[in-house]
Amino acid sequence: MECSRRSEEIQSLTVEIVQEVARVAGEEVTDLPPLGQTIDIEAVERLAQTEDTRIEFRYLDYEVVVADGNVTVNER
């Protein structure tokens, strides 16, 4: 049971990141490459669960920040 919840949480964060990048880029989510080709999604999810953690990485031409339960996407 815990594994399925974990999987849902990872998918939720992944979906949120990709949706936000697509929105900022003016693209369809399906037109973007898989996020897992850029980062270790499970590692980001684990770190995102840690209090006062800020995670930054590049995805395409954008800087993605995951902090305090929020996803922010900025053009680089």
UniProtKB/TrEMBL annotation:
The organism's taxonomic lineage, starting at the top: Archaea, Methanobacteriati, Methanobacteriota, Stenosarchaea group, Halobacteria
Species name: Halobellus rarus
Domain Halobacterial output: start-end pairs: 11-74
Protein name (database record): HalOD1 output domain-containing protein
Top-level lineage group: Archaea
